[in-house]
């Protein structure tokens, strides 16, 4: 049941009571907490969407790289003071630590009977299963692909040394022909997937084609480790299109793909120099977002078909920047001009994060198509409580209390403060991001929104908001729609009942009787204005009788209750005369008091004091007093309560 709210001026007699409140000690946050943010990823170094935006603006790859990787310069492998190996070893992460594979399906395969292994004494086969039995490796080989055909050797013990596998049609693993060319896939090594395994590609149960060779080793405490060994430039062909969309090259963004090739090459080489933590000397990089995403050359698909994982645009970008890297203009690891660890991420949100490379504005990030420059999501309050409460009870507030100062809203979050019933917890912004699965550490939370909603609800309805109101309005208030919230309160059924209760107390000095309250709430709900109801209260028989049933007593009471002062003689005589002569009735006299400039100025001042805790400035006082007959007191109260000033006042602890 709702009633209409019409601008008018007959409500301010209630302001002193209506707008006083005692803020709640602490309101639990909404069940679903909205969070807004910018960018996707860590933001260090190059932004991939930003590089695309700059490429579309006409920048070449050197300009893009110079922009993002300050403190570095262009170089090529071989003149950097470091001569890396020609091949890179890539850990296939989702096979790490398993008996390979523990389902019994073969691991490595070829389209023909062209595989050989260091463990099979020169025998060729179509596919091989490798497992570790706790003390040594055992291999089973088949004539056909992925475990089909006849068994050639069955679970043969081959010792503890690494099991190397290669395709005899490309024994060195260096074939560089495009994967689309006829016969090329027959020269590659396949990883056979199985049900439930989606680590390498979305086409589970189908083979996945890789260039190079494979090694399977066993490490105590880890288990088996599967490593793809191949030339750097071929490795990049499986990386660049996974990090930056290949179609960018067809849309005018080829320079972005070239920049991605250089960044990926430098990142990989720098890892080879530094050594990867926990590698045990067995690999140089991994195949996931923790390193660089790598998915080989092609993926099998239903019906015996396949889809390429390498593309002409990215192959061209790699070839046109062959061996190009970025090197530091400083000493690192005891050496000047070392290859830079050129990190990159999808979207910076408009500013890079800084760190090894100076933070820079990223105007390219705003390119059309980047859906992550700004984003929004929701997090369940219960999730935060489960991770961080530690027995402190429910979450009362979630506030960003530290930022890096770079970009909108103050930049990336350095510290988040969570207030629970039983205490507070601080967390680093990036750690909070990872725990909650946010896209970046550049985000905003509804800090103080719960307090604001509760306290403003108290102003308009005499009670805190409650879970349903908090859940309904938290997102809107955080996004800036405070006026929608305050107006909804000003026309709510709860507001109607509260106003009637206050009218009874203010006008008659008594609580509302149940029958009268229900009647007047119904009158409001059916479309009457609050000022109409107030007019009937002040001009009615009960108020008249309360003040002696005389014109003089009635007028004196109106001066006290509506103008908050003693009646002056001339004013009293005027209004008493109007009543006694019959020129105006009690309704007309009451309306005249409300319409006076004195009443309007008094009501405006009272609204400012009660909502904002201060008097209006002279200009604002005069302006709002003039507007009040058109807008109405409750509209002005809703307007003030939705202001930035009110939000700061009511959201503060």
How would you describe the overall organization of this protein?
The protein is built from 23 helices and 26 strands. The strands form 7 sheets. The chain has an 8-stranded antiparallel beta sheet with strand order 9-8-7-5-11-12-16-17, with no helix packed on it. It has a 6-stranded mixed beta sheet with strand order 6-10-13-14-4-15. Helix 15 crosses helix 19 and helix 21 crosses helix 22. The chain is elongated and about 125 Å long. It starts with 14 loop residues before the first helix and ends with a helix.
Summarize the structure.
The protein has 653 residues and is of the alpha+beta class. Helix content is 37%, strand content 19%.
Determine the structural class based on helices, strands and strand pairing.
alpha+beta
Percent range for helical residues? Answer: 25-40%
The profile of the biggest β sheet is: 8 strands, antiparallel
Radius of gyration: 37 Å
Overall strand count: 26
Query: Mean pLDDT, rounded to whole units?
Result: 87
Oligomer: single chain
Integer tally of domains: 3
SSE layout and pairing:
Elements: H1 15-18, E1 32-37, E2 46-47, H2 48-56, H3 61-68, E3 72-76, E4 87-91, E5 108-109, E6 115-117, E7 127-132, E8 137-142, E9 151-159, E10 163-167, E11 189-191, E12 208-210, E13 213-219, E14 223-231, H4 232-237, H5 240-243, H6 254-274, E15 285-286, E16 298-300, E17 306-308, H7 312-320, E18 324-328, E19 331-332, E20 335-336, E21 344-345, E22 375-380, H8 381-389, E23 395-403, E24 413-420, E25 423-428, H9 429-436, E26 443-444, H10 449-461, H11 466-478, H12 482-490, H13 493-508, H14 514-525, H15 530-539, H16 541-546, H17 551-563, H18 569-581, H19 586-595, H20 597-612, H21 618-631, H22 633-641, H23 644-651
Parallel strand pairs: 2-21, 4-15
Antiparallel strand pairs: 1-22, 1-26, 3-18, 4-14, 5-7, 5-11, 6-10, 7-8, 8-9, 10-13, 11-12, 12-16, 13-14, 16-17, 19-20, 23-24, 24-25
Helix pairs in contact: 2-6, 3-6, 6-7, 10-11, 10-12, 10-23, 11-12, 12-22, 13-14, 13-15, 15-19, 17-18, 17-19, 20-21, 20-22, 21-22
């Amino acid at each position: 049941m709702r009633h209409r709210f019409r601008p008018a001026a007959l409500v301010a007699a209630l302001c002193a009571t209506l707008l006083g409140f005692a803020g709640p000690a602490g309101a639990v946050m909404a069940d679903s907490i909205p969070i807004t943010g910018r960018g996707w990823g860590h933001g260090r170094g190059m932004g991939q969407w930003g590089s695309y935006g700059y490429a579309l603006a006409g920048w070449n790859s050197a300009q893009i790289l110079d922009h993002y990787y300050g403190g570095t310069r262009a170089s090529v492998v071989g003149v950097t003071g470091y001569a890396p190996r020609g091949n890179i070893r890539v850990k296939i992460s989702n096979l790490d630590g398993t008996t390979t594979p523990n389902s019994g399906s073969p691991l490595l395969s070829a389209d023909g009977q062209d595989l050989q292994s260091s463990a099979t004494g020169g025998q060729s086969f179509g596919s091989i299963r490798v497992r570790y039995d706790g003390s040594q490796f055992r291999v089973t080989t088949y004539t056909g692909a992925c475990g089909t055909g006849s068994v050639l050797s069955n679970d043969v013990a081959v010792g503890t040394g690494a099991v190397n596998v290669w395709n005899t049609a490309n024994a060195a693993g260096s074939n560089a022909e495009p994967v689309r060319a006829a016969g090329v896939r027959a020269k590659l090594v396949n990883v056979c997937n199985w049900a439930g395994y989606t680590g390498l590609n979305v086409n589970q149960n189908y083979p996945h084609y890789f260039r190079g060779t494979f090694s399977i080793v066993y490490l105590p405490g880890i288990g088996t480790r599967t490593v793809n060994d191949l030339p750097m430039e071929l490795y990049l062909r499986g990386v660049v299109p996974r990090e930056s969309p290949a179609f960018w090259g067809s849309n005018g963004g080829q320079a972005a793909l070239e920049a991605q090739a250089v960044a990926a090459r430098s990142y990989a080489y720098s890892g080879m120099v530094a050594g990867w933590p926990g590698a045990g000397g067995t690999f140089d990089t991994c195949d996931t977002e923790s390193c660089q995403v790598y998915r080989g050359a092609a993926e099998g698909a239903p019906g015996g078909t396949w889809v390429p994982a390498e593309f002409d645009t990215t192959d061209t970008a790699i070839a046109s920047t062959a061996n190009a890297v970025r090197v530091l203009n400083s000493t690192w690891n005891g050496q000047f001009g070392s290859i830079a660890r050129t990190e990159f991420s999808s979207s910076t949100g408009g500013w890079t994060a800084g760190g090894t490379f100076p933070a820079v504005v990223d105007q390219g990030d705003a390119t059309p198509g980047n859906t992550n420059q700004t984003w929004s999501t929701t997090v369940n309050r219960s999730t935060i409580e489960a991770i961080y409460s530690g027995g402190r009870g429910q979450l009362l507030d979630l506030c960003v209390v530290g930022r890096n100062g770079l970009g909108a809203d103050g930049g990336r979050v350095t510290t988040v403060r969570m207030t629970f019933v039983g205490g507070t917890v601080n967390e680093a912004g990036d750690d909070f991001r990872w725990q909650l699965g946010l896209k970046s550490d550049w985000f905003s939370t509804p800090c103080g929104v719960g307090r604001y909603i509760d306290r403003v609800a108290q102003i308009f309805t005499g009670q805190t908001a409650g879970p349903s109101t908090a859940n309904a309005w938290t997102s809107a208030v955080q996004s800036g729609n405070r006026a929608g919230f305050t107006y909804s309160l000003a026309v709510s059924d709860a507001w109607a009942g509260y106003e009637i209760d206050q009218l009874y107390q203010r006008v008659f000095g008594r609580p509302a009787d149940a029958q009268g309250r229900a009647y007047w709430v119904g009158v409001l709900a059916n479309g009457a204005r609050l000022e109409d109801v107030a007019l009937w209260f002040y001009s009615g028989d009960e108020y008249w009788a309360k003040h002696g049933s005389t014109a003089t007593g009635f007028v004196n009471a109106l001066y006290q209750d509506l103008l908050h002062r003693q009646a002056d003689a001339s004013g009293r005589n005027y209004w008493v005369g109007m009543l006694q002569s019959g020129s105006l009735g009690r309704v007309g006299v009451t309306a005249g008091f409300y319409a006076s400039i004195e009443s309007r100025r008094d009501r405006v001042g009272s609204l400012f004091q009660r909502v904002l805790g201060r008097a209006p400035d002279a200009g604002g006082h005069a302006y709002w007093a003039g507007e009040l007959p058109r807008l109405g007191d409750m509209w002005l109260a809703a307007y003030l309560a939705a202001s930035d000033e009110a939000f700061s006042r009511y959201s503060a602890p």
